[in-house]
User: Which sequence fits this backbone?
């Protein structure tokens, strides 16, 4: 079983829509979680950390469910610029990445 | 510098040749990581340096891969006798202290193509 698994998508959504996707992780002892964004042929960049109580950053909401060992990302009022691959990351000092979920926002 | 830099940005080599990839971390960051991203695959951890501690080499796929970090700053990843399956983007990241709460900042990567 992979350490981090994601639905690869793609999620094709119109501008203004809400899109959400999950990722599961295998190590129940993991403590630190992130969402990274990666644009085509670019390096990953931190989008947001994921806190136990859930957290928002503008139109982005991240949730952590420790019992079921998954984290989620929700994007509200999606913009064309949100089109990217979103990488779920578990940090046990070295990062374990999911394969990424591709989101395409269309006009 | 302002961010993590890597060189070269692209490297094309012939099977069997050795290559060296360089990473300059953010100034003052004590932790440095190497990852690789193969086509259609997620990022894969290779090696981790933290200060003067022995590096964690648990992710290196074979003994053809090695890395050094000189003076606690610049790092070089060396691949000997390259194979076609080594073709990937090699990403370097650094963080301030290497703890699980520190953000890892990535360089732009080196795209390696082995013919």
Assistant:
């Amino acid at each position: 079983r992979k350490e981090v698994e994601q639905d690869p998508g793609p999620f094709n959504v119109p501008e203004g829509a809400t899109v959400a996707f999950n990722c599961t992780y295998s190590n129940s002892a993991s403590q630190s979680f992130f969402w990274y964004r990666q644009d085509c042929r670019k390096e990953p960049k931190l989008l947001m950390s994921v806190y136990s109580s859930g957290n928002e950053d503008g139109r982005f909401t991240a949730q952590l469910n420790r019992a079921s060992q998954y984290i989620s990302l929700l994007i509200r009022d999606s913009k064309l610029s949100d089109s990217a691959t979103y990488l779920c990351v578990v940090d046990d000092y070295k990062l374990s990445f999911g394969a990424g979920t591709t989101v395409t926002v269309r006009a | 510098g302002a961010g993590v830099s890597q060189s070269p940005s692209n490297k094309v080599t012939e099977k069997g040749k050795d290559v060296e990839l360089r990473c300059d971390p953010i100034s003052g960051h004590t932790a440095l990581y190497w990852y690789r991203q193969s086509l259609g695959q997620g990022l894969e951890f290779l090696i981790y340096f933290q200060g003067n501690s022995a590096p964690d080499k648990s992710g290196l796929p074979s003994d053809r891969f090695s890395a050094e970090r000189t003076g606690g700053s610049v790092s070089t990843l060396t691949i000997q006798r390259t194979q076609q399956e080594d073709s990937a983007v090699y990403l370097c990241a650094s963080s301030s202290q290497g703890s699980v709460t520190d953000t890892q900042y990535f360089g732009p990567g080196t795209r390696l193509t082995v013919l």
